[in-house]
Design goal:
Blueprint lengths: L1 H11 L14 E11 L7 E11 L6 E8 L2 E8 L7 E10 L8 E2 L2 E2 L5 E15 L8 E16 L7 E2 L4 E14 L8 E14 L3 E5 L3 E3 L2 E14 L6 E12 L7 E3 L21 E16 L6 E14 L9 E12 L5 E15 L2 E14 H6 L14 H11 L2
Antiparallel strand pairs: 1-2, 1-22, 2-3, 3-4, 4-5, 5-8, 6-7, 8-9, 9-11, 10-13, 11-12, 12-15, 13-14, 15-16, 16-18, 17-18, 18-19, 19-20, 20-21, 21-22
Length: 408
């Protein structure tokens, strides 16, 4: 039963469709990620999906994007310049099982009796606009409206006395600006991003649920967040680093709609809030500031084997009912990686320590993790790791800048 639950839950942790531009690159990617805690039994921390992006399909001027998992599908069809120069129109649909499930984690404990399944789907309409065509670093904007419906049911461990939230439809409105960006890859060669976002949810059914109505599903909530990101691979040497700073606040956020921090799963969401060593989505915050970094060093001349070190730290303000002692959370870790010569295969096995995670023995938690990617297009094009192609999410100027720092 645990194996079946793992497969189903991992299958629906796919990145959201909310990218701020229509991707011009053809992509076929298989992504896999898994974290396992040594202490206690936390929520399933895994993702597994196939990602497909097809420019000029089914017709010229159209782009199809799909993320496919065994029990979930997320797709979008974009019509380039349908609304004028550099302004694209897209229609999306997503749905399946378990994607809206809730895992109750409080004080370092995964409380199965207060956790439940959520299934649903949505349809969306998006408008993308490029503000600075021809610039080295693109500035893209997005406006999206989506209708989302969720149906809840009990898991095998949900307490009989626990009342589920009412099934509900919701209108979701998202706006955002993104300067730069990153490709949907496990290890992009170079990326830079400065972005700001707002998302508003308007639920048709709100009200109390839980144990004797001790928690509330809010009728309206608003999220405001931003991210600064820098990724670079040093030519020839192959050293790779990533730095990121994310921050967010909210209005009306509840248990199910707050910011979720925890685990180290880099491609489980469009904006992953990673805390190495923690359970998946262990921390539920009303507002937060999160800083993280990663450095990878090749171990051999062919740059197939590598050692990686990573760390993250966050200060949070908890959602009501989810507070625990201490507002700071930090995690560190390291891993051994392998990449094929054409970078079609990438695999990293790692260990992480959650410095401030609460467990039965006090503070501190240990996890192991595995992330892997198979890039079909990398194998076909023989794209070299240190020679990224030109695209809307890359900057040649960024490469020139860091060559000046690290040398040729």
């Amino acid at each position: 039963m645990r194996l079946l639950q793992l497969i189903l839950c991992a299958a629906v942790l796919v990145p959201g469709a909310g990218r701020a531009q229509v991707d011009p690159e053809k992509r076929q990617l298989f992504q896999l990620g898994y974290n396992q805690s040594f202490q206690g039994l936390g929520p399933v921390a895994a993702y597994a999906y196939y990602y497909l992006n097809l420019p000029d399909w089914p017709r010229e001027g159209q782009t199809l994007r799909l993320a496919v998992a065994p029990v979930y599908l997320d797709g979008e069809l974009a019509f380039r310049e349908a609304l004028g120069p550099q302004t694209h129109l897209a229609f999306g649909a997503a749905g399946g099982g378990f994607a809206d499930s809730h895992s109750e984690v409080r004080g370092g404990r995964f409380i199965k009796e207060e956790s439940f399944n959520g299934h649903g789907g949505e349809v969306s309409t998006s408008v993308y606009h490029l503000f600075n065509p021809g610039a080295q670093i693109p500035l893209n904007g997005i406006v999206r409206a989506a209708f989302h419906h969720t149906q809840y049911d009990r898991s095998s461990r949900t307490a009989v006395v626990f009342a589920l939230p009412a099934d509900s439809g919701a209108l979701r409105l998202r706006t955002g600006l993104r300067w730069g960006g990153r490709e949907p890859l496990l290890t992009p060669n170079a990326a830079m991003e400065l972005s700001a976002w707002h998302e508003a949810d308007f639920r048709a059914n709100d009200g109390s649920y839980g144990l004797a109505g001790d928690r509330v599903s809010e009728a309206q909530s608003q999220l405001f967040w931003g991210r600064v990101l820098l990724i670079y691979t040093v030519p020839e040497r192959g050293d790779h680093f990533s730095l990121n700073l994310s921050a967010g606040t909210s209005l009306g956020a509840d248990r199910m709609g707050g910011y979720k921090l925890g685990a180290a799963l880099p491609l489980a969401a469009e904006f992953p809030l990673s805390l190495p060593g923690y359970y998946f989505q262990e921390i539920t915050a009303r507002q937060f500031v999160l800083m993280g970094g990663l450095y990878k060093v090749p171990l051999d001349a062919r740059q197939r084997w590598s050692l990686t070190g990573f760390a993250a730290t966050a200060v949070v303000d908890y959602v009501g009912g989810m507070a625990q002692p201490g507002d700071w959370h930090s995690g560190v870790g390291g891993g051994l990686g392998y990449a094929s010569a054409d970078k079609a295969w990438e695999v990293t096995l790692g260990y992480a320590y959650g410095v401030d995670a609460i467990r039965s023995g006090g503070r501190g938690a240990h996890t192991v993790g595995l992330v892997a990617q198979y890039d079909l297009e990398a194998r076909r094009t023989r794209r070299k790791a240190a020679e990224p192609g030109v695209g809307p999410e890359k900057s040649r100027g960024l490469q020139r800048l860091f060559r000046g720092v690290f040398g040729d």
